[in-house]
Each structure stands twice: as structure tokens, then as C-alpha cells.
């Protein structure tokens, strides 16, 4: 089944149905930036809400924040990003193409030959990934600020604020969803790697010495999260970072990887960041970033286990995993098998025909369902076509109002995945859909 999905098919469906468009398309587009259309923004918001609920509400001891994108430039000196957040860049002297040296295949790296034209490559030079801008009208060294390359630092610099104002006790977590920016040398694969993206990060503050235990705990939690999101288990795996891959701040790190059409790739990082970040901020700001255990009266700098997921990258995971094609009435049907919890539209409502009061009746039913579900009303074209249009955007349930509805107050409830249909009394519709969402299992 997985062979059916290609990046071309996903990209084209996203454009055609209003999930994702190229940024500034009317001007020829800006490479590596994307805009979320009416269905894309619904999907992205639902994934964000799902993550937020899983990572804050469903735990006793995780709170949220929303920090500013622009931060004091010292933050990035302390975090190590100014000195270390760099990739090795090489240029082809012939065709002028640019590559990340560490991503070149061994043969090209060794022979310094361009994979595109065979020309000679320059020596690698380190290129910092942070976007620099300036604050205020005068652009000089004192006005430099960076667009944050990760949301995590907004959490660390607020560690003391949160401890002092929200009565959290170690172990506890702080979660955040927000934009991050990286001047990536190579961007490809649609929304997989972009210069502007969104992260969903959670920093879990623990007692030093308990890091291995909590690391294992979060690894398990995070893989289960993707299964709850409806992602197929056999498409997920862990990859442990070897010594050459570890980020400068990490003692141990695992990536959650998903099998995209272009192969297994990272979708989330789980990192043991030790006391590195809080320790660095203590040094740079001169204020102790530590924690007092009120029971033992012990004061210490907490260790941090971080779970760092890309929201925009997760949109691609969900789209790639949901994409399917099957046969329906002798035609190929394109269907997105989203989990109903995150589908942009939950219920499509269709009068069989517009006349004889069926359209009015259907509209009334749709208005009632709107209170609880995201709905879409459609009376245009043959009913089969209307079903296909909803299948293609992943709407899990369809309701058809017909002449029988006028006689006995029942409608047809159609299931996207199986295309099966059952009759349901209008008074029981909401409860039935609610139950179906709860019990949903992908076939
Ligand atoms: N705070 C730790 C951190 O930022 P990371 O492994 O560099 O760790 C975490 O990034 C996640 O953020 C990645 O697993 C990915 O999902 C997402 N991400 C990173 N760079 C990205 C980019 N250029 N475009 C889209 N998503 C990106």
C-alpha cells in the first residue's frame, strides 16, 4: 500500500485541494517557504491541539508557555548556537550548486567532485544557520537579534519565572509550540525541511542522576503518541545518535523516524541535555538557574530531557501516512485516511437532491452538527462525486438526506474508509459520530 504514495502525489493533492501552497506563488515563489490554505491550517491546528493536550492537559505536571521569537542576543551565545550551530558548506566551482558537505555521499566528499556536474568543489566553510536581523532603526553590532532557531531557549530563560509563579515541583515539564527559523543550505521534499517552520517542544526538568530513567520514559511516551495520532506503527522507528551525530548540547539522543516516500527520516528528537543549558545561562546572565527541593533543602541545577517535534514536519507525516488509493465502482479513488480526531472536516452533509425540501432539511441537520463537529455542506453534483471529493480531503463521515428522511427521520451515515453505509436516526447522529471517533481504528 505504501508504494502508492509519492511526494509528487502529495504535493499535487495539497495544492489542488487547498492544503498547502508555495509561498508568494504569484511572484514565482520563494524557495522553501510554504503557505497553509483553508484545509492545511485546520489540519495543522488540529495536530497542534492534539500534541498540546497530550503533552500538557493529560499530565499533572506539565505547563505551557508562549515565549517571544526575538530574544536577547546573549541567549544564543550562552546556548552555544552562535559558536556551534553551523553546517559545513561547499560550492561547485563549475555549476555553482551548493551542498552540505556532511550530506554528500562518501565518494563525492573524498574526491571533492560535484554530484551534479562532476566539477571541483570548494573547501568546506562553516555556515551559521541562524537568521540575523536588527532591532531599532540603526543597524550596528549592538542592534543584532536572531530569529530563534529552536523554541527550547524560550523555556530555559523562563525556568525561574515558571518555578516561582506556578507551584510546579520537580519532576515537571514546560511545553511550547511556536515558529523557529534556520537558514538551511539545502531545502527539499516539500515541507520536510524549510527555513521557517514550527516546533512543538517540551523540556522536562528532573533531578540529576534520574536522567536515564526519564529518558526511557519519554522515549516510550513519544512513540505511543504517534500511534495515538493514527500513524502506522510499522512506519516508525528509533535511531540513536552516534558520537559524530550528537548535538553539542546532548549526552544521549534518539530520533523518532518515519518512513516517508524518500526513506526513513527524523521527525522528532528526544535529547538528554543534562544541566548544560541552565548551567550556561547561569554563567552568561550571572543569576543562578537552580532549584530548591523544599523537602530535602537540597539546591541543584536540574537535568533536562527534551522532546522536540516539528509541527510542520508532522503535517507531512500525517499526509504521507494517510494517503491511499483504492478501487471504487471501477474508478481509482484517492482517499486520505486521517484519524477522525485530526481530519480538517469531520462530517460532510449532502441532500440527495436539492428539491422537495431535502436541501433545507440537510442544512438544518448540518447546522445542528456544527456545534460539535467540523462540517461541510455540499449539494453540487452527483452524490458519488460529492463522496469522492470528501474522501480526497480525508472527511471520515458523510451524511446523506433522502426521501426516507422525510418519512422516518433517518439518514445514511457513510464511512470513508470502508465506504459502508448504515441508516441512523437523526436524533442519534451526534452520539453515534462521537462514538465512532472514539472507537476509530484504521483498517
Ligand atoms: N531543541 C532541539 C532541536 O531543535 P532538532 O533536532 O534540531 O532539535 C527538532 O529539531 C525537530 O524540529 C526535528 O526533529 C524536526 O521535526 C524539526 N525541524 C528541525 N529543523 C527543521 C526544518 N528546517 N524544517 C522543518 N522542521 C525542522
Amino acid at each position: 500500500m505504501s508504494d502508492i504514495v509519492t511526494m509528487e502525489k502529495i504535493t499535487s493533492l495539497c495544492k489542488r485541494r487547498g492544503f498547502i501552497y508555495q509561498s508568494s506563488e504569484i511572484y514565482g515563489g520563494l524557495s522553501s517557504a510554504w503557505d497553509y490554505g483553508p484545509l492545511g491550517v485546520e489540519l495543522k491546528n488540529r495536530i497542534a491541539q492534539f500534541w498540546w493536550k497530550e503533552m500538557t492537559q493529560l499530565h499533572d505536571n506539565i505547563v505551557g508557555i508562549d515565549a517571544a521569537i526575538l530574544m536577547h542576543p546573549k541567549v544564543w551565545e550562552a546556548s552555544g548556537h552562535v559558536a556551534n550551530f553551523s553546517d559545513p558548506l561547499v560550492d561547485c566551482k563549475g555549476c555553482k550548486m551548493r551542498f552540505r558537505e556532511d550530506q554528500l555521499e562518501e565518494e563525492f566528499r573524498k574526491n571533492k567532485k560535484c554530484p551534479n556536474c562532476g566539477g571541483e568543489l570548494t573547501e568546506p566553510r562553516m555556515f551559521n544557520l541562524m537568521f540575523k536581523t536588527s532591532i531599532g532603526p540603526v543597524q550596528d553590532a549592538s542592534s543584532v537579534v536572531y530569529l530563534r532557531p529552536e523554541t527550547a531557549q524560550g523555556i530555559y530563560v523562563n525556568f525561574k519565572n515558571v518555578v516561582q509563579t506556578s507551584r510546579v515541583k520537580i519532576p515537571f515539564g514546560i511545553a511550547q509550540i511556536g515558529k523557529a527559523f534556520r537558514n538551511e543550505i539545502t531545502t527539499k521534499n516539500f515541507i520536510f525541511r524549510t527555513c521557517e517552520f514550527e516546533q512543538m517542544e517540551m523540556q522536562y526538568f528532573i533531578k540529576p542522576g534520574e536522567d536515564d530513567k526519564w529518558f526511557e520514559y519519554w522515549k516510550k511516551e513519544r512513540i505511543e503518541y504517534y500511534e495515538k495520532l493514527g500513524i502506522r506503527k510499522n512506519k516508525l522507528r528509533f535511531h540513536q545518535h552516534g558520537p559524530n551525530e550528537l548535538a553539542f548540547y546532548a549526552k544521549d539522543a534518539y530520533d523518532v523516524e518515519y518512513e516517508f516516500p524518500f526513506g526513513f527520516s527524523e521527525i522528532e528528537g528526544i535529547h538528554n541535555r543534562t544541566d548544560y543549558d541552565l548551567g550556561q545561562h547561569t554563567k552568561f546572565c550571572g543569576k543562578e538557574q537552580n532549584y530548591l527541593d523544599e523537602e530535602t533543602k537540597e539546591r541543584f541545577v536540574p537535568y533536562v530531557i527534551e522532546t522536540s517535534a516539528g509541527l510542520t514536519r508532522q503535517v507531512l507525516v500525517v499526509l504521507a501516512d494517510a494517503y491511499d488509493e483504492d478501487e471504487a465502482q471501477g474508478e481509482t479513488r484517492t482517499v486520505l485516511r486521517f484519524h477522525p480526531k485530526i481530519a480538517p472536516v469531520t462530517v460532510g452533509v449532502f441532500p440527495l437532491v436539492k428539491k422537495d425540501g431535502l436541501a433545507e432539511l440537510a442544512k438544518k441537520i448540518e447546522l445542528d452538527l456544527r456545534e460539535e463537529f467540523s462540517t461541510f455542506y455540499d449539494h453540487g453534483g452527483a452524490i458519488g462525486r460529492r463522496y469522492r471529493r470528501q474522501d480526497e480531503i480525508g472527511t471520515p463521515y458523510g451524511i446523506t438526506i433522502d426521501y426516507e428522511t422525510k418519512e422516518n427521520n433517518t439518514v445514511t451515515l457513510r464511512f470513508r474508509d470502508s465506504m459502508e453505509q448504515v441508516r441512523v436516526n437523526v436524533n442519534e447522529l451526534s452520539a453515534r459520530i462521537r462514538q465512532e471517533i472514539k472507537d476509530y481504528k484504521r483498517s
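The chain has two domains: 7-70+162-319, 345-439. The domain at 345-439 is CATH 3.40.50.800 (Rossmann fold).
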